[in-house]
Design goal:
alpha+beta; Four Helix Bundle (Hemerythrin (Met), subunit A); 4 domains; six-stranded antiparallel beta sheet; 663 residues
């Protein structure tokens, strides 16, 4: 019964999306909003969200008469991972995507007010077109509601890697939210191009709708890195895996847009560039979906090959060609010669060039094996050394700009600006001096200098934002909060920079100070790595609901640590694959990372890989700080401050801290 209702709900969602396309196009031509579009948007949302809830009910109820449940369900799978199975395989993930996109349509329709409603018909039609594509896959080649005959008594459960850590229930939905959310600024940009209204109002609206997906992508990427670190047992957090790479690409172009949007807001420049970045961000989400769901590139994250891949390739081609044609045909030319750039504008342009360069390098490196195979039949792999060697120096430059950019005036350079750079510069010089005494490598020196420079400068400018102006009387905590709230856009940007600086420093420190050793121990033998000791005490087997777990018991001691650790080897029911789950003891100074690699029952030995990873806990904190900054910047202003502010080029003597994410 659930299968029939779910299939009918999916079909209703598809039909409603098609009606939405027709009504949206008609409303765009007439220039008047059609109230029926609101009804259609809600109908589509109720149908597709309802279909998702029905699938969750089928998974929880173990209805193996439904093909998708028989594919990923199991009576022994815990409830959390049973629910997470909705997005754990191909057909369910498409259904989940369609449900989120239907919510995005409702949000755009219900939250668009005032002058922005002029762009609503065309943007709604664009979103309905994208939604119809996903709904058509759900109804057609990716139908998760197919009936099984005969009905199996049980299923294999999710992929073992997807049911070994709670982060698997959190990390993918954030990525989906980011991918789906970037369809809204793209749809608004298509509508603005059609109407010829790429004005300041369009820019403010698109920027607001981009910040939310940017925050979701930030959290998705950081949580994905955390999952990789905590589950895969290899001790790293970013392997430059193809699916990791394509998820990073739209984050890079969206970040570039959030910076170049300030140049258009303050200087009236880069309109075409901003349109291109918004379009590229959406197109890269489709590319990421193509890579993930086609299986054309080998990845621990990718789904298996299917006929759905070519359909996503077709969608990508149509969106790419259509966007290029629309931009060429409708983008207005520059009516007047551009003004002089100024110091901060130049920094933003350099920031954009570097971000797009990183995106291009990652894109080429990720897709090159595909091209090599298609053109020459050669099996080529592009691994982490390529990306780290090429992207590393550019990343150092970007982090340095994080420190320098907020100090620059919008006008011409003035000697007084040097004073604004002193706090971070002094700290960076001191850290470089200390590292030189210890024989640090050039890469370590450059990364540490840029990261510490950015950290101190960002913190210093947040403090400056909280300080009262000349003649201010109220200096209490409440006044500080009020000042920060009034400047939430710039404060949010500085908090993002603070988080990026923390991440940069952790990457540098963990790479330089990482220690690892593989040891084979008998019971009561001890291994020492750095300042830590691990004493092996024995093994035990545990039979749990859907798995057999072999636990290697040990006791870890060291700075701030004196506790038992229990790394595991897990074999799930129906799988012959043994998954190593590391034991991680986190301290502010370093993580002790212990992985059980093998057990020799005959010899009575266990082989461990023991790693010391400096400051790793700060990496997740840095990601959270960056996401928090994005939320602060995206927080809507009070009603009193919602009037549109005209673009004003301020004199060179402006407060150099002004302008981060708000111009």
């Amino acid at each position: 019964m659930i299968g029939l209702v779910g299939s009918a709900a999916s079909a209703v969602g598809l039909l409603a999306a098609i009606v939405g396309i027709l009504l949206g196009v008609r409303a765009a031509r007439s220039g008047a909003w059609d109230r029926r579009l609101t009804i259609v948007a809600w109908t589509t949302c109720i149908a597709l969200v309802g279909a998702n809830l029905l699938m969750v009910a089928a998974l929880v109820g173990r209805d193996f008469s439904i093909a998708y449940v028989a594919q990923v369900g199991s009576r022994s799978t815990p409830l959390l991972y049973t629910i997470a199975s909705l997005w754990g395989a191909l057909e369910g993930s498409i259904l989940f995507w369609a449900g989120l996109l239907s919510i995005a349509v409702v949000l755009l329709v219900s939250r668009t007010r005032g002058p922005d409603r002029a762009l609503l018909p065309a943007s709604t039609a664009t979103l309905f077109a994208i939604l119809a594509f996903f709904a058509a896959i759900v109804v057609g080649p990716g139908d998760p509601w197919r009936r099984m005959d005969p009905v199996p008594p049980d299923g294999p459960g999710p992929n073992p890697l997807l049911q070994n850590h709670p982060l698997m229930a959190i990390h993918p939905p954030f990525l989906y939210l980011g991918f789906v959310g970037l369809a809204i600024p793209y749809a608004l940009t298509v509508a603005a191009l059609v109407a010829g209204r790429l004005d300041e109002r369009w820019l403010q609206t698109v920027r607001r709708w981009t910040l939310g997906p940017w925050v979701a992508l930030t959290l998705g990427l950081v949580l994905g890195a955390w999952w990789s670190y905590a589950v895969l047992g290899w001790g790293g957090y970013w392997a430059w895996d193809p699916v990791e790479n394509v998820a990073l690409l739209p984050w890079l172009t969206a970040t570039a847009f959030l910076h170049s949007a300030m140049v258009q807001e303050r200087r009236g420049m880069l309109r075409g560039w901003n349109v291109g970045l918004i379009s590229a961000s959406f197109l890269l989400t489709i590319l990421a979906t193509l890579v993930t769901r086609s299986g054309i590139l080998n990845s621990v994250h990718a789904f298996t090959r299917s006929l759905i891949g070519p359909l996503f390739l077709l969608l990508f081609a149509i969106a790419l060609v259509g966007s290029v044609i629309l931009i060429v045909a409708r983008l207005p030319g520059q009516a007047e010669p551009p003004p002089r750039l100024g110091a901060r504008t130049t920094a933003f342009l350099l920031n954009n060039i570097l971000l797009v360069a990183v995106a291009a390098i990652v894109l080429v490196g990720t897709l090159f094996p595909l091209f090599a195979d298609a053109v020459a039949g050669a099996q080529v792999s592009v691994g982490a050394p390529y990306f780290e060697r090429v992207v590393g120096p550019i990343a150092v430059g970007l982090v340095a700009l994080v420190a320098i950019g907020p100090s620059l005036p919008w006008g011409e350079w003035r000697p007084e600006t040097r004073r604004a750079l002193l706090p971070g510069a002094v700290v960076a010089i001191g850290i470089v001096g200390l590292l030189l005494l210890r024989g640090g490598s050039p890469e370590l020196l450059a990364g540490a200098a840029a990261g510490s420079f950015a950290l101190v400068q960002s913190a210093w400018y947040i403090v400056r934002r909280a300080m009262p102006g000349n003649g201010a009387i109220d200096r209490g905590p409440a006044a500080v909060v009020q000042r920060l709230l009034r400047r939430r856009r710039s404060v949010g940007g500085l908090v993002v920079h603070l988080g990026i600086a923390v991440i940069a420093l952790v990457i540098v420190a963990s790479g330089a100070g990482r220690q690892e050793s593989s040891v084979t121990l008998r019971a009561d033998q001890t291994a020492r790595v750095g300042d830590f000791e691990v004493r092996f005490t024995g093994t035990r087997s545990e039979v749990r609901s859907n798995r057999v777990v072999i636990v290697g018991s040990a006791v870890a001691t060291g700075p701030g640590i004196d506790s038992p650790v229990a790394p595991e080897l897990t074999v799930f029911t129906g799988s012959a694959q043994a998954i190593a789950t590391p034991a991680i003891v986190a301290t502010p100074g370093a993580d002790l990372y212990v992985t059980l690699v093998d057990i020799d029952a005959t010899a009575g030995t266990a082989t461990f890989r023991i790693g010391i990873h400096p400051f790793m806990s700060w990496l997740w904190l840095g990601g959270g700080i960056a996401a928090l900054g994005g939320l602060i910047a995206a927080w809507p202003p009070s009603r009193r401050g919602m009037a549109t502010v005209p673009v004003v080029v301020r004199p060179a003597g402006d407060d150099p801290a002004r302008g981060i994410l708000d111009g």
